[in-house]
Amino acid sequence: MGVKTRDHSCPPRMQVPHFLSSTFRTRSDTISLVLLICLALATVSFYAYSVPQVYLRIRDAKQLAARQMEAFSQWIANDTNDTWESTDHRDKNGSVAGGSHPGDDWPTKSPLEVCVGSNQTIGEVEDLFCMPRPNYEPDFKNPCWWETVTNTTGGQPLDLPSRELRCLPYFHILCCSKSGTTDLYWRIAQHPDIVPNVGYFGKEQLFWAWLKNGFLGKWNKGPSKPFIDYINGFQSIANYLSNDTMPVKQKTQLVTLDGSPLDMWDLRGWILLPQNRGLREPQVMTPHLMRHLYRDPKFIVLMRDPVERLYTAYLFHKMGNNSESFHLAVVKAIAMFDDCLAHAPSRRECYFNGSVIEHLPADVHFNCYAVFIKEWLAVFPWKHFLFMRTEDYSKNLKSSLLEVFRFLDLPLPDKRTMKKMVELPIAHHTQEKDSAGAMLPETRALLRKYVEPCNAELAALLKDEKYLWKDV
After folding, report:
1. Residues 69/76, Cβ–Cβ less than 8 Å
2. Which of 71, 91, 361, 381 could form a disulfide with 329 if both were Cys (CB 3.0 to 4.6 A apart)?
3. Which tens digit of pLDDT belongs to each residue from 282-301?
4. What gap in Å lies between CA 441 and CA 443, rounded to an integer?
5. CA 308 from chain center: how many Å?
6. CB-hemisphere CA count at 13 Å for 332?
7. Which residues pair with 385 in a beta bridge?
């Protein structure tokens, strides 16, 4: 009885058909046929997938263009009745045209500030312009609103609909890591009308710059968080205000905050917003989203001498551990960022480019505070901002805190509470700086020269020469 063998010229179930056997009789001919069949199948699969994708991209582009054109037409039609004064006209360096103080007039909304819809297949995040602004409760100082909630199971309601209070922050503490924002928070949090949130240190939600975009710091990425997660971060004040046992007069004065400093300057997530689809530089960013959803926000911007701040932040974020490594990082970062500025048609392409920022060994781009403040002033009037220097705040705690409470339109604390605020120890000390030692003189000289035009731009913008930091 002979041993049966299998012809391995083709895989099992892929033998050459009988009508082709006379043509393809050799092993090489058979392999060639199989390869041709595989190539044909691959080609069909490619076009079956690619053509619909191209169509979807074209469809999305057409829909976006149609919505933007419709919004632009309506914007033009209503322009004669618009009470807002446009300040969102920048030159190549991002400067507001005319250079005059915009006063308290609202800047004109961009025609791009419309609901587009998120395309998650290309990594876009939730489109907040598709959400209507909440119907805020006028009796509360803090922006809160009532939502109708129905608990269900298996699609069937468990009980009658109920009302649930939702809130957003009344004010933000913005600007600069290692500039005293945590210290400011711990002191003003002693005020009886300020309620902490449930974020980091009771102040930082990290939503607008990071969590909304799926950022977990400068380099790490994760899933993006929806806006409802941000709202849930202010459940503490919602619980207070919906408590029937609390006196009405006391409830109406309570406010909460978001003290995430990086919301002002870490704007690299703009590329994930549907409104910026296909753009080289942003037209819609965090302040535009806030303007769409917020009622009357207030922003405290606390700024420290950019040279000293950069060194402290470098050590605190463990980008290095001594003055020598800091010097090398600064030299390299300046060269990298200057190269970007030299080749980009607009400096905004560098300052808001995540691919550039994430590779800098030191965050020298953030030394130019004016670049970022201009983005916010192009969206919100000046009356929404309180600008302060860390150096002045540290030297005059009491007067600075009183200025903050007046800006927030909160009752001034009694003498005992104010004394407690002032006598609190410094909230945070960067211990890494103690072991690293002082900044090298050559590094400080290099940075002083580098930030000089940026400080001059900031001083001109805020019309105050103290922002030149000549006194430090």
Report:
1. no
2. 361
3. 999 999 999 999 999 999 99
4. 5
5. 24
6. 12
7. 299
